[in-house]
Amino acid sequence: MQAKGQDSQASDKRQAYLVRCWQEADARWRYSVEAVDGRSLPRRGFSSQNDLLIYLQNILPSQNNKL
How is the chain split into domains, by residue range? Predict the structure, then answer.
């Protein structure tokens, strides 16, 4: 079990997102992502999986950076 101070520091660095994926009637896939951790960030929509992944790579901490 972590000490109380360590747990609160870790929770300050957490980010939670809801990613939605759905297929339109014309068979094209659509994607959206929105923060669900209390931050007031707008929902973002994407028409390609590649654009969604690029966006996530830009907003999420890299694995090389320690949380």
Answer: 15-59
